Amino acid sequence: MPDEKMMAAAQKFVFSNLLSILFHGNGGDAPPDALPPHPSEKVCIHRRAPPAARLAEATALVVDVDGGLLLSRSLFPYFMLVAVEAGGFTRGLLLLLLYPVIACADASGGGDVAVRAMAFVAFCGLRAARFRAGRAVLPRWLLEDVGLEAFDAVRRRPLGAAGKRAVVVWASRMPRVMLEPFLKEYLIADAADVVAAREMKVLWGFYTGLMEKGDGEAASEARKKLMESTVVGDDVVGFSGGSSMEFLRNNTLSSSCKEVYVVSAEEKRKWRPLPTHEYPRPLVFHDGRLAFRPTPLDTLAMLVWLPFGAALALARIAVAMALPYRYATLILAATGQSWRLRGSLPPSSRSPSRGQLYVCNHRTLIDPVYVSIALNRPVRAVSYSLSRLSELISPIGRTVHLARDRAHDGAAMARLLDGGAHVVVCPEGTTCREPYLLRFSPLFAELSSEGVVPVAIAVETAMFHATTAGGWKSMDPLYYVANPRMCYTVEFLGKVHTAPVRNGAAASTDVANRVQRLMAAALGYECTMLTRKDKYLMLAGNDGLVGAKGPTCQ
Question: What string of H, E and C letters represents the secondary structure of 412-453?
């Protein structure tokens, strides 16, 4: 027995240090429950969350993101998001195959080695200038992982020298490119705050996959900024978690604190996620194809499903194009592609020779298809941009392309209505995934004196999002029909009269805003004044126009 124990210990030591050498680590980390003494005897370490009174009297706060703010200990889902969304499914498969090695390294105390390995697979070879996953994809998942108790601690922001806000946010394990956009745009908007994190090394414009050491330039920069925001004798408090020892080992930064509070894993399990209504800034836009948090098991399920999903997508498209709606929807429902009608159908138009204008919020490119299915009659869709593939597989026929010219677009839709066609228009001009409605263009209110019918649409998907701002938009409908389960909900609201606009008694913007409010009330969404341009500038780095140049979402 002693020989077996010695052999197991030797294997554990060799395995951990071999990985450390391969990924330029400094040896294995301390086990998560271990609490080493701080190198500086002046720093007092407490194994509990910082009391509210203690934070209130402190003049500066140093927060460890990985160990203090986030609830989950595993960083695998975040690196998997980078691997899949920026590198593709093949890179995601490679990271998943490496997971047993990563898990063994983490369990044996080599946490930093595991992070370096994941960073290498996720980032190696990506073009640095085109990387936008940290801004467009990760904030949605990081916000869901923020602990309410930790956020409350950070929210009680102490005052430093001369009344300045002195909060330093330190990412002890994840690189800056993954965290800084999320922290600065959603959690700490104050310019006096400092985000310190390790950098990914770049060579010839591409990420090498190597990450700097924890005690590198980032920690020195954070200490310098902290000293600028405080004076000698200021009361600086550190806040970390038991899952991250890098903060305690980083003598450059943690030695600036008089006290460091380390939350135990048991206490952290009692924390609650930050509620959506308490987000410092609403999360209106985000990008990426994955509609689930890619844990190892969920990622494995997705990769196993992919070939079946691709075959099922082709079969669903063939059924939708070949059969009438009444038969196609029954067959598609048996495969997991369902829809439901909430409420009743709208009354028929009083003028049989003139078409009806339907105004709906925009969730995916397939919105007009489900309006047509619900009405059980053909409709004409109008769109600013549509790929040839999407138009080819559309079961409702040819889409009318708009030119973003008010006179031209209004005349084109008026001709369709005068010709007796039922027209579906999405005045938001782009899709929005979250429970928000973007600003409605008022052009639709000027086209018909008989009024418009608002249509409230909601979409549920299990695995893939059917929209993207920075990826291949031609694949949007294919991703939707590749889901194992999805459901469209269509609700026709009461007709809104637009005759006052035609008569000059009301402004078209007032009618557009009224329709927006009616839809928001029906769906439980919030109205915004954000536009297509706001979305694409944030997610893709361009204004969203066809042919616009800008970095794609890597």
Answer: HHHHHHHCCCCEEECCCCCCCCCCEECCCCHHHHHCCCCCEE
